[in-house]
Write a structure and sequence with these properties.
The protein is α/β, with parallel strands linked by helices and 410 residues long. The chain is built from 13 helices and 13 strands. It has two domains: 147 residues, Alpha-Beta Complex (Aspartate Aminotransferase, domain 1), CATH 3.90.1150.10; 227 residues, Aspartate Aminotransferase, domain 2 (3-Layer(aba) Sandwich). The longest helix is centred in the last third of the chain and has 22 residues.
Length: 410
């Protein structure tokens, strides 16, 4: 066989700062340990452990049998767009026209379309930190500049009005809000949102991207309100991002949707026309049923998540060296391990960071968690409680046992 020289591969400059998600790397290591026979419990998943509702699956089946297997209009079928419009009217008190909504291949594509359609080199996007790291990655890829603003546990991991004001420059194009949040579960009250909107009122060139994917997973009667419903002025420069992945356990169906000014949606549709084209026709039919069919399952599953949240937060706070704020929503607990730093493990290793702590827990207690450093804030770690109560109880017991073996700093 001829020895043909391998041609050089030239990676695009836009990927220079990008790498595979740390969450995926942790998942890969957990899978490797499982292969070796270790009973690993993974608390890193960003998806519900519930099945897709049966009525949704049946709707997809009917659509396939009825021949809904061809291309659809770029921004979604008329039925899909009508379901999105009705959802916003019914649940958020917002009236959108059909040309003000778009259906995409997952909520992530809504964000990517928006940045690709609006960012020029050097344009800035303010991102409260900790944050889902895909936000900054997409800004980078679209030639923008992510401006991260650290939001401490003392502020409930939420950006304060004075922080927002200080972060805005003539180059600022967007503010990103994710409420409830990944990774912290923190959510903004209507009063907190209004104070942030007052800042935006003074800066008419700054638009708001509101990621509301976890809006149905809120606890203790917390009022999940869209900022677009609080200010008619700000609504004119707000893009709402949502989807069926979290509330309806449809992560693999890849259906997201957005709502905003018609000019923005039109520009995003141009981007989509040159990338994925339309979202999957059958998945759109399933999403229509999810949005328009019976909604009682949302309450049932939210209550289940709240029970898990209460258990996990209490268990974490009972472990010496750890502390955890009770989140308002989502299915994550974001706990501090500051009291662990400097501790010595039984084999003599000194744990100096949240990454080292999470790695040690994975290798010894076989519980996979994600360090806060992956989301831009240390020393914390994220626990997803989107798994069974039995696994959560076992994971918390292992974590407590492991931490009890540490020689904590004086």
């Amino acid at each position: 066989m001829l020895d043909i020289p391998k041609p050089p591969f030239h990676r695009a400059n836009r990927l220079a700062s990008q790498k595979v998600s740390e969450i995926l790397a942790i998942g890969a290591r957990a899978a490797e340990l499982k292969k070796q026979g270790h009973p690993v419990i993974v608390l890193g998943a960003g998806e519900p452990d519930f099945p897709t509702p049966s009525n949704v699956i049946e709707a997809a089946h009917r659509a396939a049998l009825d021949g809904q297997t061809t291309y659809t209009p770029l921004a979604g079928t008329p039925e899909m767009k009508a379901a999105i419009v009705e959802k916003f009217r019914r649940e958020n008190g917002l009236d959108y026209a059909m040309n003000e909504v778009i259906a995409t291949a997952g909520a992530k594509q809504v964000i990517f379309n928006a940045f690709m359609a609006t960012l020029n080199p050097g344009d800035e996007v303010i991102i409260p930190t900790p944050f889902w790291t895909t936000y900054s990655a997409m800004v980078d890829i679209c030639d923008g500049v992510p401006v991260t603003v650290t939001c401490s546990g003392e502020s409930g991991f939420k950006i304060l009005p004075e922080q927002l004001e200080a972060a805005i420059t003539p180059q600022t194009r967007w503010l990103m809000l994710n409420s409830p949040s990944n990774p912290t579960g923190a959510a903004y009250s209507p009063e907190e949102l209004l104070k942030l909107l007052e800042v935006l009122e003074r800066h008419p060139d700054v638009w708001l991207l509101s990621d509301e994917i976890y809006e149905h997973i809120v606890y203790d009667d917390f009022p999940a309100v869209s900022p677009a419903a609080l200010s008619a002025t700000i609504r004119q420069r707000t893009l709402i991002v949502n989807g069926v992945s979290k509330a309806y356990a449809m992560t693999g169906w890849r259906i997201g949707y957005g709502a905003g000014p018609a000019d923005l949606i039109a520009a995003m549709t141009v981007v989509q026309s040159q990338s994925t084209s339309n979202a999957c026709s059958i998945a759109q039919a399933a999403a229509i049923e999810a949005l328009t069919g019976p909604q009682d399952i949302l309450t049932e599953r939210r209550d289940n998540f709240q029970t898990r949240r209460d258990f996990v937060v209490e268990a974490l706070n009972e472990i010496g060296g750890l502390s955890c704020r009770k989140p308002e929503g989502a299915f994550y607990a974001f706990a501090s391990c500051e009291g662990i730093l400097g501790a010595k493990t039984p084999d003599g290793q000194v744990l100096t960071s949240d990454r080292e702590f999470c790695s040690w827990i994975l290798e010894t207690a076989h519980v996979a968690m994600v360090p806060g450093a992956a989301f831009g804030l240390s020393p914390y770690f994220r626990v997803s409680y989107a798994t069974s109560r039995e696994e959560l109880e076992e994971a918390m017991a292992r974590l407590a046992t492991a931490c009890a073996e540490l020689e904590l700093p004086a």
